[in-house]
Structure to design on (286 residues):
């Protein structure tokens, strides 16, 4: 009897749950659900930083601002006087004389000073009657018809409505807040334009950009259009590599004025035998 009592007692206690219990299986999620990861344990393939959307391009830091400045250099045996600027800081606007050459301004210096410009250069071609040989847009007002026939109107300088500056082929022009038709193109996509005249050397005025925010207005010594294009191909002027260049009216129309506010200024290059012109391109602060 003394042997059976302890055995009976242990059986009663086990039946009441007082003894050690067997391990229970972990609860399972309902069908179709993914088990959550334990706290502080990263899910495989996840990152604490957001990943860029698939196919997106990495964001490039903005290019350094090009300092406004006037300078002189030599390329291809010719002298070049230029003003460089950054289109993020400065605009290029058209100053046009509705009454014709000299009706308001005798030269680029007078035109530039009248509008508070930092520099100014002669603009596009005009007829013997003083009318623009191509479309001109100044402060949104359009003058003259589009020159569709001559190489002297093959391109446009444009300030678009958003403030972006561009050099466009005539076929791509659709309007702008400021615009000046001129030509021919000297350089496109970094390469000289073929078929340009190798005759009639003269002083040249032109406009160039690196395809981004770097711009030049420039006047060069006597050269043919073909010679100037060859010299500008691959050229770097004032730290700006020429990607596109458009010819402006040249010869006796070619002149450049730089204010004393522009580093490297003042300067005024206009031979005594030059003739009055119809319009100008002027650099202003934004």
């Amino acid at each position: 009897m003394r042997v059976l009592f302890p055995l009976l007692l242990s059986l009663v206690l086990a039946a009441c749950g007082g003894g050690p219990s067997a391990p229970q299986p972990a609860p399972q999620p309902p069908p179709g659900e993914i088990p959550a990861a334990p706290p502080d344990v990263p899910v495989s393939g996840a990152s604490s930083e957001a990943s860029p959307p698939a196919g997106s391009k990495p964001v490039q830091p903005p290019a350094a601002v090009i300092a406004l400045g006037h300078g002189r250099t030599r390329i291809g045996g010719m002298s070049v006087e230029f003003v460089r600027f950054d289109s993020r800081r400065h605009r290029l606007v058209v100053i046009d004389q509705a009454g014709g050459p000299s009706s308001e301004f005798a030269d680029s210096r007078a035109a530039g000073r009248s509008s508070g410009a930092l520099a100014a250069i002669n603009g596009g071609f005009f007829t013997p009657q003083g009318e623009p040989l191509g479309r001109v847009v100044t402060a949104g007002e359009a003058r003259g018809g589009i020159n569709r026939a001559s190489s002297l109107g093959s391109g446009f300088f444009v300030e678009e409505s958003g403030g972006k500056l561009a050099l466009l082929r005539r076929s791509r022009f659709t309007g702008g807040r400021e615009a000046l038709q001129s030509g021919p193109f000297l350089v496109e996509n970094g390469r000289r334009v073929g078929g340009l005249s190798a005759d009639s050397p003269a002083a040249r005025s032109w406009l160039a950009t690196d395809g981004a925010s770097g711009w030049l207005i420039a006047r060069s010594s006597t050269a043919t259009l073909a010679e100037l294009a060859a010299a500008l191909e691959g050229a770097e002027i004032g730290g700006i590599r020429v990607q596109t260049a458009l010819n402006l009216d040249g010869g006796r129309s070619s002149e450049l004025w730089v204010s004393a506010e522009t580093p490297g200024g003042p300067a005024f290059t206009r031979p005594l035998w030059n003739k009055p012109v119809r319009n100008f391109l002027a650099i202003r602060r934004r």
Q: What stands out?
A: Confidence is low (pLDDT under 50) at residues 1-9, 11-23, 29-50. Residues 69-285 form one domain. The two ends are 111 Å apart (CA to CA).
